[in-house]
Design goal:
Length: about 190
Amino acid sequence: MDNVIIRKAHPEEAETIIDINIEVWNSTYKGLIPQEIIDKLQSKDNNRIESMKQRIQNRQNIIVAEINGKIIGYNSFGPSNDEKYHDSGQIYAGYILKEYQGLGIGRKIALACMTELQEKGYHTLITKCLENNPFNSFHKSLGGIYMGKDSFDPMGLHVGMENVYYHDNLEKSIELNKKKLEIKSEQKTL
Ligand SMILES: CC(C)(COP(=O)(O)OP(=O)(O)OC[C@H]1O[C@@H](n2cnc3c(N)ncnc32)[C@H](O)[C@@H]1OP(=O)(O)O)[C@@H](O)C(=O)NCCC(=O)NCCS
């Protein structure tokens, strides 16, 4: 995917980002999480849109992938929200629309988040993924080391257990992912 633009989200894109969140939760988590929990956590209303707008404006911690003017995925990142890793940065979430998955875009966005976190002074990173999600391989492929499990309870609802992945050397993980992206683009031109 050469025509993909990786950039910070703009506040007016809040609703599009929420729509992607809802769509990818439904395409990925159906069968993994009870539908009533998905529906409870993934409803869209003006409050959610407004708070997403504020978040983008104030924290500037969402990076999107755009193809031909359309946002097809995003990541959010910032300081770790896990007290066991209080000095680390964290990629909180990564969602790519189903039809664009597996093309290297998720790695590109994650790399942009890692680079931003490194520029902010972080040397280590965590990511988390529901234990029965097939995309755990993505977290390992980014260079994360499995550290154990943690309970995932957004808005006080117990969704399940998450696997925790740790990057003990963020600089090395950035190099690893740059290399993997280079190899992917070389393979395409062969
Ligand atoms: C996880 C996600 C963000 C990865 O982005 P992506 O663009 O699809 O992934 P990439 O093409 O950059 O792939 C990087 C690695 O992820 C893994 N991966 C990608 N697609 C995968 C798939 N369909 N099944 C399993 N692993 C996959 C592979 O390990 C891949 O490494 P490789 O290129 O060496 O084979 C994206 O697939 C997604 O949104 N999935 C659904 C939502 C989700 O589960 N998000 C993670 C929540 S923790």
